[in-house]
Amino acid sequence: MGSVxxxxxxxxxxxxxxxxxxxxxxxPIVNNPIxxxxxxxxxxxxxxxxCVVACPTQTLALGAEVNTxxxxxxxMAQPEQCIGCAACAMVCPDSCITVYRAQRA
Length: 105
Ligand code: SF4
Ligand code: SF4
Hints:
By secondary structure, the protein is α+β, with helices and mostly antiparallel strands. It has a domain at 33-103: Alpha-Beta Plaits. Helices cover 16% and strands 19% of the residues. It contains three helices and four strands, in the order αβαββαβ. The protein has helices spanning 20-26, 50-54, 87-91, and strands at residues 34-40, 60-62, 74-76, 97-103. It has a two-stranded antiparallel ribbon. It is globular and about 45 Å long. The protein starts with 19 loop residues before the first helix and ends with a strand. 16% of the residues are buried. The structure holds iron/sulfur cluster (2 copies).
């Protein structure tokens, strides 16, 4: 009996698609063909950092400036690292983030 290699990705049983976490593990981010960009509604952002933690490429950070409510909105501290995965937008409790994607040149 030979050993069977485990699959490189798990799939979502509902959709049959690979989970994002597994895609990110198996596809080097530097070779990702998609370049992402986000826009943050800085007046609505409450600086909770949920998006910063969720970003798989460490693109985001809280800024030094405060908005009119006294919160420090997040921003793209490492914009070249964004792959447009939209994890940040999905976890933001106040829907402050819009994601844009383009092919890398
Ligand atoms: S779209 Fe993805 S890679 Fe880009 S900032 Fe949001 S979580 Fe990070
Ligand atoms: S998750 Fe939303 S509210 Fe929290 S820091 Fe990010 S953009 Fe701001």
